[in-house]
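Quick one - first record:
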Amino acid sequence: MKEYIKYFTEISELCQRLTDTYNDLSFDKDIDATEVMTLTYLKLVNINTKSIAILLENDLYIPTILICRNIIEAFFNLNWVFEVESQDERRERVYRLEGEPYFNFEKELKLMEEEQKKDKTTWRKEVVEELRNMTTQEMKEFPHLVTKDKNGNLVFKTPPNFADRMGMHRLKFYHIYRFTSFFTHPTPRLKEFLLNDSINEQTPLEYISEPLSQMYTYIILYIFSIMEYSRKLFQDISSDFKDEREAIINRIKEILHELNKNYFGFGEETI
């Protein structure tokens, strides 16, 4: 298990090197939404991989699983964006992803407002009004995240649910996301890991070391995909660091081959 400290540390450094090759590029955060989201995820991966390495050094495994969920979501969000070829369609998918947190927040706000009409709310009226004003201001500031519902009301855009965004890749990868759920929700496995000194004559870590190793390897595959998406996206915009970018991607491939113990049951052509 400790070998992953080395790999995640190196991957964080590789991700930083790749991000640095894009430093001279400038984008309009609205028009170039796909490029900006891709760079944002690269920076997030850099932070997350560094965090995983530090947590593993301190034998803190459960928090790494929480971070891995974030990387899985980043991978499938980008994958959903890049499923379409048109720049306009990609941009619209980015807007739908960016609108989702607002959409969910406003859905809860509407419930609060409905409850207030029945005089059953635990929220003060001025607090709810302040939240509504804030939401309205966000709609004005980010009009590209707003659409109209069937009744003509302004609402935030939202994408398909997470499983549906996976599309054709769901059968390959969704089980990894579900594995992380065993340790982020109250399950027998979480209780075993946190409360028992031994499980079937093994320490809790020994007991889950193999599925953990498999999960970390898949996470590195997702990171590779995110980095490869960025390389392909920016290769026509900036070719100044073409060789360095390819070297970074190839090193990630080497790491995957070093770690893969027939984990990818769908074949290594994915790498």
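second record:
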Amino acid sequence: MKRLFAVISLLITLAWLSLRALGWTRYAAVLSGSVPEGAESVGDSTQRAVLLLAVHFAFVLFAAPLALSALGLHAWDVVSRARSRRAG
């Protein structure tokens, strides 16, 4: 389970970093009613803005908690193994 949490967190983070590196943050301007320079159309800009927001919210709401959960589960496994070695 901890690997699944870590992989999902990593994928969300990579998606967010990729969109930022591609400069998609400028498409967020569509949400205030303006079309960014160089945009092909309003519809295209809107789709990119919605995708950017979805990935951003996934990054903020899920990436960090999943990464911390994976780290916590790993720490729990390490402590459990150490205790079982001492007991057995």
